[in-house]
Amino acid sequence: MILGAWLLLAWVSPTTTPAAVLVSTPRGESRLVVIRDTSWGPAVPAASLVAALDGSLKQVEGWAEVVVAKQRFRFLLGVPAYLVNDRLEPLASAPFLARDTVFLPLQFVAEALPRTLADRFSYDPDHSRLVEVVPKTAAVPGPLRFASGLQPGHLVTVDPGHGGLDPGNPGLFFPRGITESNVTLQLGLLLREELQRRGVGVRMTRTTDTLIDLGDRGAFCTEACDLFVSLHINSLVKRAGYTAIRGFETYFLAEAKTEDAARVEQMENEALRFETARTAVAPDNGVEFILKDLQLNEYLRESARAAELVQEHLDKVHPGGDLGVKQAGFMVLTTARRPAILAELGYSTNPGDARFLTNPRDQRQIAAALADAIVAFLREYERKTATPADSGVNP
Ligand SMILES: [Zn+2]
Q1: Higher pLDDT, 314 or 70
Q2: Sequential DSSP letters for 255-267
Q3: Res 6: pLDDT
Q4: How many Å lie between the centroid of ligand 1 and the Cα of residue 295?
Q5: From the CA of 59, how far away is ligand 1's center (Å)?
Q6: Distance from the alpha carbon of residue 154 to the mean position of ligand 1, in angstroms
């Protein structure tokens, strides 16, 4: 109730009222003039609003009916309220008719509309801007696709390994001061760009040099997320000939099958020692936890396929050699409840791999190859879940 009173004050105060509202949609931008000196409070012409939003306006007797994004709003002119889905919602001022033109309260644009259709509209009060986005879950009419061949609505979580207190491996042949965590972040940010360019939504577990606990990283990939991708750089401890070993490999979550997979697993799970007491698990118990958790992950087949595609695509650009798809019990993958993979993109303990992984032009290539692999995975996934109506085979 106090909030309602405050809003009413805010909405009649001329100092908070913009002269115009910018309406930004996938179809373009338009400016809505705000009429401020009315006895009813700041308002916008309904016809301009529906034109900007590709909606419709109907006037019947004392009513105005506005349809935006298939949602119907009904206004009784002169009454500070509107009807939506048979619910009556209050407004601070009333819609009205002036010289045959219907005006709607500015509050409808700035507040009621973005609240009712929250997945479609947002309002930025600082810039007096109404933004329309095509919702992820929108039923897409016909085979609407990005140039990548993907349908809209995919979301991938990108997890740049390590960060903050945990530098990852020290990066023997990386430029001075650069460690694994720096390179995974650079590659992760590039991967985000490349995925977005292909029409895939991206959630990052980190975008700065911070430490996210291993057990928390997977939680970024929940129901709406199609794939969890953790990026890492391999390294070996000093022994005879160790700098000659190079190449890339991709893991999916399972019990470590080989001695080398067990080594990488242990190395990556080591980050547990940097974590807070709240989540810290001794590495030994960590493995037990992982094995218990394994049976809960029903996406092994999909994860293995994603790993395979990453290897195929990286092989086209990577000079180090394809070391194959492997399985191990990575802590970071256990908490993802969706297909999840971990790519070891090369060895910082090999001069050739290290150069490749830190050269900006090569980094771009790596990111593009990863993005192509992810797109290929998502397209296969689309085909598997396609209904006859949207398969595009039988128009
Ligand atoms: Zn790592």
Answers
A1: 314
A2: ---SHHHHHHHHH
A3: 42
A4: 24
A5: 63
A6: 26
| Portion of the chain with pLDDT greater than 90, in percent | 44
Q: Collapsing DSSP states into helix, strand and coil, what is residue 299?
A: coil
Q: How far is the CA of 168 from the centre of ligand 1 (A)?
A: 5
Q: Which runs of consecutive H residues, i.e. helices, occur in the chain?
A: 2-12, 46-52, 106-107, 113-116, 180-197, 214-217, 259-269, 283-294, 300-315, 331-334, 351-358, 360-385
Place of tokens 């080398």: 260
The pLDDT, as a whole number, for residue 139 is 52
Residue type at 356? F
Q: How confident is the model at residue 361 (pLDDT cuts 50, 70, 90)?
A: very high
Q: Give the integer Cα–Cα distance in Å for 53 and 27.
A: 9
Ligand 1 centroid to Cα of residue 32, in Å, is 51
Q: How many CB atoms within 10 Å of residue 359?
A: 12
- Mark residue 380 as left, alpha or beta (left: phi above 0; alpha: psi -120 to 50; beta: remaining): alpha
Residue 119: CB atoms within 10 A of its CB come to: 12
Choice among 215-219, 221-225, 329-333 with the minimum mean pLDDT: 329-333
Question: How far is the C-alpha of 144 from the C-alpha of 363, rounded, in Å?
Answer: 31
State the pLDDT at residue 137.
53
Long-range contact set of residues 274-282: C-beta below 8 Å, sequence gap at least 24: 274/164, 274/165, 274/166, 274/211, 275/211, 275/213, 275/214, 275/215, 276/213, 279/213, 279/214, 279/215, 279/216, 281/215, 281/331
Q: What is the pLDDT of residues 176-214, one digit of tens each?
A: 999 999 999 999 999 999 999 999 999 999 999 888 888
Report the relative pairing of strands 155-160 and 201-204 from DSSP bridges.
parallel
Task: Using the mean position of ligand 1's atoms as its centre, give its distance from the Cα of residue 74 in Å.
Answer: 56
Cβ atoms 6, 19 nearer than 8 A: no
Q: Mean of the per-residue pLDDT values for the chain?
A: 83
Going from the Cα of 298 to the center of ligand 1, the distance in angstroms, rounded, reads 24
- The CA 251 to ligand 1 mean position distance, Å, reads 12
As a whole number of angstroms, the distance between CA 8 and CA 128 comes to 18
Q: What is the DSSP letter of 166?
A: B
What's the confidence (pLDDT) of residue 252?
Answer: 84
Structure tokens at 93: 């001022």
Edge-to-edge strand ranges of the sheet holding 20-25: 28-33, 20-25, 129-132, 121-124
Distance (Å) from CA 216 to ligand 1 centroid: 16
The neighbouring-strand residues paired with 68 are 71
User: Do 202 and 196 touch, CB atoms closer than 8 A?
Assistant: yes
